[in-house]
Amino acid sequence: MNTNSVSTLMPVVYIPHGGGPMPLLGDDQHKELIAFLANLHKDIKNSAAQPTAILIISAHWEENEVTLTSSDSPSMIYDYGGFPQETYEYQYPAAGHPKLANQVMALLKSNGINSKLDATRGFDHGTFVPLMLMYPKAQIPVVQMSLLRSLDPAQHIKIGEVLSTLRQQGVLIVGSGMSFHNFSGSKQNSIIFDDWLTNTMTNNDLEKTKQDLINWAEAPSGRESHAREEHLLPLHVCFGVVYNNQQPAEKIFDSFLYDKKISAFIWY
Q: Which of 7, 12, 17, 227 lies 20 to 30 A from 50 at CA?
C-alpha cells in the first residue's frame, strides 16, 4: 500500500479474474484471489476518492477497432459453459456511462486510433466476475472496453497513453485478465514468467519496461505462459495509462491458481 498522502489521481490496476465464474462459486482454488478482489476497493479508497466511474478492459472482448459499451443499462454475457445454473443468473446491475464512452471514443479518435460505440454489448465475465467481488453494490457506473484483434502490444500501450487524463476525473481503469494463462503449462514456467513480469513492471526505468512489454513474447517462458496474449494485453493498456507519469507498478497480489502463479499490479 502506498503510504503517501491521498492522490488526486485515481489508481490504475491490473487484476487476474480467475477461471470463468469460479470465484463467485467460492471455489477453494480461488480463495486467495476471492479475498484479494473483495478487499481491493479498500486499497483504492485509501489512495484516492471513491471512483466516479470504472473503465474496464476485459480479455474476453476483441474487435477490429477499439469498442466501448455505451448502453445506459448493459446486459449480461455468460461467456462460459458447463457451470451450475446459478452462474447463468448472475446480475451486475451497474449503470453504464454513455458520456464516458463518448469521451473515450473522442480521445482515441483525436489521437488517430479508430474506435466505436456498441449500445447492445453487455458485461462479459471478465467484467462482472471481478466487479461483483470488488464493488458488490454495483453503485459505480461501468464502461467496458475491447482489445484489438490484432493483439499488437505496442498499440495497446498507445491506447492506454491516450486515456491517462481520465485518472484526473476519478475514473478507475481496470485491466482484467490473467498474468499467466496456459493451464496446460507447468508451474515452473509460471514462476519464471512471473519473476520476469514482476521485475519488468516494478522497474523504475519505464522506457525499458515499455520495450520489454512490447517484446514480451521473448521473455523467459513468455509463450509458454501465453500461447495467445489476450489475457496479458489489458496490462499493456494499464501501463500505457501511467507511462507519461513515469510510475512503476507495485505488485499487490500473487498466488497459485491451479498450481500456476498469478499476480496483480497497481499504479498509484
A: 17
